[in-house]
Amino acid sequence: MKRTELKELGEFGLIDRIEADFKNINSETVKGIGDDAAVIDNGSNVYTVVSTDMLVEGVHFDLSYVPLHHLGYKAVAVNISDIAAMNGIPKQITVSLALSSRFSVEAIDALYQGIKIACDDYKVDLVGGDTTSSRAGLVISITAIGVVEKNKIAYRHTARPNDIICATGDLGGAYLGLQVLEQEKQVYLANPEMQPQLAGKDYLLKRQLKPEARMDVIYELNDIGVVPTSMIDISDGLASELMHLCRSSNTGAVIFEDKLPIHGETYNTAVEFNIDPVTCVLNGGEDYELLFTISQEDFPKIKNHADIALIGYMTNIPKEILLNTKSGTPVPIRAQGWVHF
Ligand code: ADP
Ligand code: MG
């Protein structure tokens, strides 16, 4: 039998392949594979939304520079981010761990200290999980459960041409935070006497080590009466997430380079590292901001929001994603995302 390498399919191709083989048979399953969270109708006035994410040592984090309490916090935040991306309110999480004997009780205490702070911050209950042993490294899998009023749910597939594309916060910082940590690790390995040079990188380190799910924006949108026409969280980079919105909604998009939100520290550090700042914004991962679309009529409600950038608009040309550069030239952008395999 022919052997196909995983890298030939890629992560998205693999998920598509899995999805193609399963058909939902329960009427309660409103949305299965293909969005930030599954959507379940339990017959009340709200939908239940459910999302799972796994963090693997050596793939998603390196314990030589990631403190365990931050890791615990981040593991919760990245799951809450997927609930936020449905315009949902998180309620419960479960936490599953695979551990080796390398970890002490105190280490696990530190991990759970971070998990607890996140539960307090996002007002969720830890309601269960699973604990097992691992031969190599730490694996944390978290499932988050939330609710959303039925008429407020925000899918990936419901953007329409002419909708305005919005991004929260700023982008590219978490990626550069990782570059800073990696560089310091290499310096340390070469010479353990060297002190780490992390001065002036506080913002980037915070973006990498302690990202926040943008629940604040979800509550604000609710307060000002805006329901996004589509939404996704930015875990793999703006280009990749915009591609998902366009692919699911059968739209294209135009975004403007001079509207892309970037923090000063991100910009300066990108230049320092000889990386194009725009590449960091488009393809840097792990910012956990929200990318969403609104209808033109909601523009006045959002146009002066300090923490939401209006970066472009949806078009009726399926999958054509253009970046209008500062010089006025439109260039097609391709999503790099993360290469997992
Ligand atoms: P996100 O980046 O928002 O966490 P993913 O790209 O991980 O989303 O997943 C996209 C969709 O594919 C989601 O609906 C997710 O539940 C589903 N999915 C991912 N991996 C698997 C898998 N191994 N089996 C079934 N569904 C999966
Ligand atoms: Mg997501």
From TrEMBL:
Mg(2+) 3 binds at residues 36, 82, 233. It catalyses: thiamine phosphate + ATP = thiamine diphosphate + ADP. Mg(2+) 2 binds at residues 53, 82. Mg(2+) 1 binds at residues 52-53, 130. Its EC number is 2.7.4.16. Catalyzes the ATP-dependent phosphorylation of thiamine-monophosphate (TMP) to form thiamine-pyrophosphate (TPP), the active form of vitamin B1. This is Thiamine-monophosphate kinase. It comes from Rhodocytophaga aerolata. The gene is thiL.
